[in-house]
Amino acid sequence: MELDVETMVARLGESLLLQGARMATAESCTGGLVASTLTDVAGSSRWFEGGVVAYDNRVKMRLLGVPEEILIRHGAVSQACVESMVHGVCELMKVPVALAISGIAGPDGGTPEKPVGLVWMAWRVNRRVWSREFRFQGSRREIKNSSVREALLGLL
Predict the structure, then answer these.
(1) pTM listed for this prediction
(2) Torsion sign, CA atoms 31, 35, 41, 45
């Protein structure tokens, strides 16, 4: 049985409450949709600290501390970038748990090397970080919704 997003958020919240932990988000291509989805569930203020919509690279650098060198060498849609974003949002928000997303939601902006639908995500729990590349299909909205779903599953 596939979990619906609301059930995933409720389970995530329960887990964070049991650990006495709070979380934050750093989002680029999803434009705050993860944070919005988390706060759709009543009681999320007990475990969700906040989020940064770092759509522009300057915000990634200024607020999240992503080194310019990473953006030049690897680009914003890369493992190095999302891992730096997830560390940065944990430090900024003073939380042990976070997720970060950067990708190309389309319908334009893709290249042969980085096509529309390419999304990188990183998660951090305490000091442990992991990341993953996704290749989603569909409209801009579908890519964003798929990103939210996988971001939540990554923490669960």
Answers:
(1) 0.97
(2) negative
